Amino acid sequence: MTIRRLFDFLHRIIIPLLLKTVILFIIVTWGTFTLMNVLPEKQIAHVEHTIDKSKGEEDSYLIWLGNVLKGDFGYSDYFKGFRIQSKLFGYFITTITLCVITLVISGIIGVLIGILVAQGRSEFLHHSTNKSYKVISSSLLYIIYFLSSFPAYILAYIIFFASQSQLNLFYPIISLVLGSSLTMDILRTTSVSFQEELNKPYIINALALGFGTNGLLPSPRQVSNHAFRNALVVILPVISSRLPMIISNAIIVEIVFELPGLSEPLLGGVINKDIHLVLAVVAVSVFFIQVSMLAIEFVSFALSPFKYRLE
Question: Residue 64: which of 56, 72, 55 has the closest Cα?
Fold first, then answer.
């Protein structure tokens, strides 16, 4: 049965996701290619080797796409004539590090406060514990809600001018964690799904068998341990759907703090109409987002294989 469910999962979830990745990659890169060709040309040397003007847009795009499939993103004057793939990796690592750390911290904060909010509303806790949970969770909830109302770039500017700090990941991460809606979205989803799990029959049966109800962190012999695992299946798709937003916010925050991430070659490529460079940044961003979504689907399946029912 487990093997059948795995094949069903691959057939119904993974294969469509891979097809979606290919289609999305073509649509986004072709759209970017078209927009870049609409921009006024810069009278600089790189125009000659960035794109072959003797060919039509469709042919030029197909040539670029064929080269990308071979692992060649072309050349760029921004990288002083070097191949793009040989120089872009360092910028990519900075942006991805910023995004991954932001996702982890936002997830931890959102999940912990969400559990606290759910337990504060739970009818299973003792009255004194329930009351203290309500006070703490309500305070944290309003703080996160207030900070999440600021766009990430505005919070980044506030922190930047207050700290006057550059080339430091700490402040950009704080800007992304508190300034984006990701933490609040995870908090809300965790609170609702966790509270729903606490009200399900298997939790009531566990309580009858002597399982505990208190505790912020899920632990053995606590109903929260089982409720958290099932609630996590609902939380992961929220994180997956927010990946494009985190990437775009990270690029803007990098500009504010002058970090050497993807924002640097992207901005230079747009200003100088370096089509190959802009396409490379867009391509690696789309690839990272789709691979992350694929990984999240596998984690969700590992946590709850019965979520993917056989037809």
Answer: 72
243 in a domain, yes or no? Answer: yes
Q: For position 281, what pLDDT does the model report? A: 93
Where the chain has pLDDT below 50, the residues are 1, 43-50, 126-128, 309-311
Q: Which domain holds residue 264?
A: 89-274
Is residue 247 in a domain? Answer: yes
Contact 78, 268 (CB under 8 A): yes
> Residue 185 is part of a domain; what is its CATH number?
1.10.3720.10
Assess if residue 287 is contained within a domain: no
Q: What pLDDT, on a 0 to 100 scale, did the predictor assign at position 83?
A: 83
For residues 175 and 190, give the distance between their C-alpha atoms in angstroms, rounded to a whole number: 22
DSSP-derived secondary structure for the chain: -HHHHHHHHIIIIIHHHHHHHHHHHHHHHHHHHHHHHHSPPP-STTHHHHS-TTS-HHHHHHHHHHHHHTT---B-TTTTTSBHHHHHHHHHHHHHHHHHHHHHHHHHHHHHHHHHHHHHH-SSS-HHHHHHHHHHHHHHHHHHHHHHTS-HHHHHHHHHHHH---S-SHHHHHHHHHHSSHHHHHHHHHHHHHHHHHTSHHHHHHHHTT-B---SS--TTBHHHHHHHHHHHHHHHHHHHTHHHHHHHHHHHHHHHT-SSTHHHHHHHHHTT-HHHHHHHHHHHHHHHHHHHHHHHHHHHHH-GGGS---
Asked if residue 289 belongs to a domain, the reply is no
Which of these, 198, 179, 301, 176, lies nearest to 250 by C-alpha position?
Answer: 176
Instruction: Identify the pLDDT of residue 306.
Output: 64
d(CA 166, CA 85): 26
For the CA atoms of the chain, what is the radius of gyration?
24
Predicted pLDDT at 69: 87
pTM listed for this prediction: 0.79
> Considering its fold, how many domains does the chain have in total?
1
